């Protein structure tokens, strides 16, 4: 198992607002299909999509603890037996601000995980940057 922690991003919304936005996948329903992400579908607890014709991904919200964390897991194995859990960790920093960090636990072939660690780290950091831009830019 590999543990990967993203960078922490500062958000210009209250921890309560960010938690409610992030804890409902249906808020992401307007995600456009593009050349990398296709067939994007979501409900309150689940989200599924295809990555560049290579992998079908299914995400499930496994646990929510209001204003502290959301645990998201893989609904099925991805690309040859990988499973993961991602904890989105919320930290209140002010009345209208908070921090968000992602911690991933990835299970799979140890050799392949070592080769992919850099890409997984980059992916988590990019995810946090995207969330920061969306929330601070008030895309939701």
Give the gist of this structure.
The protein is α+β, with helices and mostly antiparallel strands. The chain is built from two helices and eight strands.
Question: How large, in whole angstroms, is the Cα Rg?
Answer: 15 Å
CATH homologous superfamily? Answer: START domain
Helix proportion: 25-40%
- The top-level CATH class is Alpha Beta
Give a verbal description of the structure.
There is one protein chain. The longest helix has 27 residues, at 110-136. The protein starts with a strand and ends with a helix. It is built from two helices and eight strands. The radius of gyration is 15 Å and the shape is globular. Strands 1, 2, 3, 4, 5, 6, 7 and 8 form an eight-stranded antiparallel β-sheet that branches. It has a single domain, classed as START domain (Alpha-D-Glucose-1,6-Bisphosphate, Chain A, domain 4, 2-Layer Sandwich), CATH 3.30.530. A hairpin with a 3-residue loop joins strand 4 (46-51) and strand 5 (55-65). By secondary structure, the chain is an alpha+beta fold.
Helix-strand layout with pairing:
Elements: E1 2-5, E2 9-11, H1 15-22, E3 37-42, E4 46-51, E5 55-65, E6 69-74, E7 83-94, E8 97-107, H2 110-136
